[in-house]
Recover the amino acids of this structure.
């Protein structure tokens, strides 16, 4: 007789539920829920809202959570929502999803691709897209809530499930904490979240122990010059030439000033100046993203940027009152740290439930995630964000052979394989929450 049938039979005879049987029951329930999950996913995918504009998305998720019996507070820290379900005495677990999409025109060719247009931060119209998979996160979040409500007789404790706005522009976690997330609601014993991955097979689970995602800073540099006719450059101070030198010189910070053993990135992602061929403009604007793990590397990088820009301007003969303006924006995201004990416990659980082949230990990355903030408030709450693969099986195998290049997160072509991705996400998040809550 098959082992699982033997265990099931013994369980029936002795009135106990085996882990294997419980595992299968979650799997079965998620399979049965697929029509709901698919509909929710396609709705969210078609209707991405930009950071700080997630009002309809938040309302939609709040409505679903209320219908499940959660007490929901809306408009918390902007468009954030906090949904609480108390189910006897026991640990408090926070599950977090983000809500926002990106200003990208979707190019996936999917029948449910987003056609939505919104105004970006400069007031310009832009297409919007869930190119970072936050629609998957919300669907998994809601699906997990449905499973945990259904399994209420199996656990004791409190669920605090939060929908966080503005992850992409990194203001949401900060705003929710500032408004008193950990004071006005039960303080979590554990924080859990997941993020999709664009280079793992759909349904594969990835765990990083320790530092997982980097500290992120956004920096604006305004390079001032003295404009004039393009035919009389000698009568001007050309900010385009100076900005070009600055872009080149900034490359030496990581290569010459930071230890080769310390991770760091300086990327100039935007350069804007001038209006036409024969006019030397008055200014050029650069926008940078900086990545690091340690406080020292972050500070060295920022001070090097200030030193290099000021001194190149001086070399170009720019007066002291017109040296470049360097602004570190208040959008900083601290590095995300996965508590190693919690990460090992959940990794072991995932291996037990889903098999070793479906669980990978991953290394840190230089992307940022403001989920890290929830784990930094003293006294520190053990936190874990695990990764969830999204790539359709055949495409994944072709990519290993070098036959296709997989689109990354934030690509217009990023298209998760919904069913295996979302189903595994719901199962993994449900099992992780059950593991941390008390058993009944
Ligand atoms: Zn993103
Ligand atoms: Zn994201």
């Amino acid at each position: 007789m098959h082992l699982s049938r033997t265990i099931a039979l013994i369980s029936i005879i002795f009135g106990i539920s085996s882990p294997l049987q419980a595992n299968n029951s979650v799997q079965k329930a998620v399979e049965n829920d697929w029509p709901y999950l698919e509909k929710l996913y396609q709705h969210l995918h078609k209707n991405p809202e930009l950071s700080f504009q997630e009002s309809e998305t938040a309302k939609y998720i709040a409505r679903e959570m209320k219908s499940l019996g959660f007490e929901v507070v809306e408009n918390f820290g902007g468009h954030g929502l906090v949904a609480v379900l108390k189910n006897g005495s026991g640990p408090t677990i926070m599950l977090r999803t983000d809500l926002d999409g990106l200003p990208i025109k979707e190019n996936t060719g999917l029948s449910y691709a987003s056609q939505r247009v919104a105004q970006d931060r400069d007031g310009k119209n832009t297409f919007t897209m869930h190119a970072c998979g936050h629609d998957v996160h919300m669907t998994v979040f809601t699906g997990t809530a449905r499973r945990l409500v259904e399994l209420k007789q199996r656990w004791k404790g409190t669920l605090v499930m939060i929908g966080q706005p503005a992850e992409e522009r990194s203001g949401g976690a900060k705003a929710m904490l500032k408004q008193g997330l950990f004071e006005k609601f039960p303080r979590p014993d554990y924080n859990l979240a997941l993020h999709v991955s664009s280079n793992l097979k759909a349904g594969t689970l990835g765990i990083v122990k320790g530092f997982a995602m980097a500290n992120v800073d956004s920096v604006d540099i305004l390079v001032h010059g003295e404009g004039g006719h393009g035919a009389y450059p000698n009568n001007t101070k050309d900010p385009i030439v100076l900005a070009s030198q600055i872009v080149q010189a900034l490359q030496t910070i990581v290569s010459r000033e930071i230890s080769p053993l310390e991770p760091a990135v300086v990327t100039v992602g935007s350069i804007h100046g001038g209006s036409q061929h024969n006019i030397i403009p008055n200014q050029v604007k650069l926008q940078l993203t900086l990545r690091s793990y340690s406080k020292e590397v972050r500070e060295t990088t920022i001070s090097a940027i200030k030193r290099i820009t000021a001194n190149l301007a001086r070399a170009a003969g720019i007066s002291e009152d017109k040296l470049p303006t360097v602004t570190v924006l208040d959008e900083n995201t601290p590095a995300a740290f996965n508590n190693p004990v919690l990460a090992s416990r959940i990794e072991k659980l995932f291996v037990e439930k889903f098999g070793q082949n479906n669980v990978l230990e991953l290394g840190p990355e230089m992307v940022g995630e403001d989920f890290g903030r929830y784990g930094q408030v003293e006294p520190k709450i053990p936190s874990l964000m695990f990764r969830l693969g999204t790539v359709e099986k055949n495409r994944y195998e072709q990519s290993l052979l070098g036959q296709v290049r997989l689109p990354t997160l934030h690509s217009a072509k990023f298209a998760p394989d919904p069913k295996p991705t979302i189903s595994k996400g719901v199962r993994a998040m449900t099992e992780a929450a059950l593991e941390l809550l008390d058993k009944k």
Observations:
- The domain at 25-214+335-439 is CATH 3.40.630.10 (Aminopeptidase).
- Residues 132, 168, 409-410 surround zinc ion (ligand 1) (CB under 6 Å).
- The longest helix spans residues 295-315.
- The chain has two domains: 25-214+335-439, 216-328.
